[in-house]
Amino acid sequence: MFQTQLNDQISQAQAKAVESAKHLAQVAVESAKELAEINQAAAKDALAAAQDASAQLLSIKDAQQLSTLAQPEVAQEAAKYAAAYQAKVSKVVRNGNKEVAQMIDASIDDARDDLVKFVKEATKTAPAGSEAYVSAFKTAFESSLQQFDQVRATATDAFANFEKSVDAALANIQGQYAAKPAKKAAKLAS
User: Fold this and answer.
1) 3-state SS assignment for residue 70
2) Cβ(38)–Cβ(85) below 8 Å
3) What are phi and psi of 130, to 5 degrees?
4) pLDDT of 131-142, one tens digit each?
5) Could you give the residue ranges of the DSSP H alpha helices within the chain?
6) Shortest CA distance to 95 belongs to which of 149, 176, 38?
7) Cα Rg of the chain, angstroms
């Protein structure tokens, strides 16, 4: 009887693992497709910008016109374009990561619930006289589950803090890059 229950639980766990793998593969394919679309649009925009810049360079007749092309506003526009591209890519990656994290959390919760159920069933059929051992085992098992939940909460916090650090670093870099052309413009004006 116990072996049959164990075999059923193992086959159910395997079926869940296969479904999870299929879902994760689908998430990866969708994210890759979105990234490819973003990159294709960026390539088209870059080609159009390069053609525009080439046309402007070919139309230059004197040095003064050349200096108007090298204005800080051009660099700021490029920085804005790069920041918009980075934001789109970041959004796709974050959404994919969020879905994967939710899937993993759900899988962990399911596995935990299945393990708790298995331990309850296994200890229910313990022989008479083993109550002290069963009680000690259940106490240790519950303690292990609590420690596991604490580790998962710590990992979740660490991931959130990492995301905040990355966001702050990107904002800092973008702020510094945008500030440099403005400083150069101020120097040129004086």
Assistant:
1) coil
2) yes
3) -105, 15
4) 888 888 888 888
5) 2-58, 63-69, 72-124, 131-189
6) 38
7) 29
- Is residue 48 within 8 Å of 150, Cβ to Cβ? no
Distances (CA, A) of 95 to 5, 91, 105, 154, 168: 38, 6, 15, 21, 19
pTM of full prediction above 0.85? no
Task: Take residue 113 and report the two structure tokens written for it.
Answer: 């619930």
Q: Provide the residue count of the chain.
A: 190
| Ramachandran area for residue 173 (φ above 0: left; ψ -120 to 50: alpha; else beta) | alpha
Q: Which residues of 3-15 are buried (b: 16+ CB within 10 A; e: fewer)?
A: eeeeeeeeeeeee
* Residues 71-114 pLDDT 10s: 667 667 777 787 788 788 878 878 887 887 788 778 778 877 87
Q: How many CB atoms lie within 10 A of CB 67?
A: 11
